[in-house]
Amino acid sequence: MKQYFKQFLTRKYVFGGIGLYVISTLLSFFVFSMVQGPLAGTPSSPLPKDVDGNLAFDESLPKTEKCPLTSQLFSKQKREWWEQHRPLGVMIENHEEARPQSGLSSADIVYEAVAEGGITRFMAIFYCQDAGVVGPVRSARTYFIDFISGYGDKPLYVHVGGANVAGPANALGQLSDYGWVGRNDINQFSVGFPTFWRDYERLGRTVATEHTMYSTAEKLWKVAQDRELTNVDEDGVAWDEGFTPWQFKEDAKEVERGAASPSFGFWEGYSAFEVKWNYDKVTNSYKRDNGGKPHVDKDNDKQIEVKNIVVVFTTERSLNDEEKHMLYGTKGQGKTLLFFDGNVVEGTWEKKDRESSMILKDKSGKLVTLTAGQIWVEILPIGTEVTH
Fold it and tell me: Nearest to residue 143, comparing CAs of 117, 160, 118, 121?
């Protein structure tokens, strides 16, 4: 009887131990899943926000981390944040009634080209900086789609509708053909409020409806997150697989800096869109004038300032359709002028196909090394005069 009781107790403890192990394992798995699930695609700890609801990074932290797009230095806190999303290209207009725009001063890279009727438009690419409010957001154009396509796998493209006439300018048709619709294509027509909203008085005066659409970078990245597009997609493919960044170096020594300040117009007779970049030798940066006035960001009143200006000369063609749509050569190669450190480098650009990154070389065929920092890419018709 004693032996039977002893065996019973032994079996009880063994099965009890197994039961506790199974329960603790299941509990640990449940807790781990809860932690991993909701936080996938978000920083390891919530970031503070300012009174306007924008992310408030601690700018006093050491800047040791290089932005993958520009090599500009930021804190580890920012790196942990940007590593949770993918590049975000936002169409922002430059009509006189849309100025001053919001968010441009925080873009890592900006592309500028004529959209229609001599009026330029921007595609601002955000990745390493939070822009807060961005806009006014406008419609898609095919050549901007080609440029954003070079920023890795499934780059985010943000716009309000777009060119949809049959033919080579059919931007909306191309987005569908590329398989972007409902994925990395964030079209206000299908997303709507509260990600996008209209503000008729944001500029301090009443403006036409087409100049009133806004969003925030955070809201737009949230749309992507909901679609399982963070730094990786639903299959675990990282956005930068296949992405080729430009090469960068530190600022040149002051004695090695030049004094070149490039200026140009896009179309003759459209002075409101003429550009001058005023080089500051002390800061080794270029400050932008737009239509003869300092180009400022509405939300921080800062004049737009970058470290590099890449002037791309390419073919320009008007379709002469009802909407006055334009086409620019985005693939192949052509001439370029590169401005950094107050100097100018003559060279060439190459882009073998839509999904390829643009390659920049000097006249000898060597890859150009830009200065670490923000970049503005100017798309100009072949033969446009650029003074400096």
Answer: 121
Is the confidence at residue 302, as pLDDT, over 90?
Answer: yes
Nearest to 150 by CA among 354, 336, 377: 354
Q: Is the pLDDT reported for residue 17 higher than 80? A: no
Which tokens sit at 200?
Answer: 């008729």
- Please name the residue that has the structure tokens 């300092």: 294
CA dihedral (58, 59, 62, 65) in degrees, to 10, reads 90
The pTM score is: 0.88
Domains and CATH numbers, the chain: 65-226 (3.50.90.10), 247-381 (3.50.90.10)
Q: The tokens 């603790």 sit on which residue?
A: 24
pLDDT digits (tens, 9 = 90+) for 211-249: 999 999 999 999 999 999 999 999 999 999 989 999 999
Cβ-in-10-Å burial (0-12, 13-18, 19+) of 90 comes to buried
CA atoms within 13 A on the CB side of 180: 24
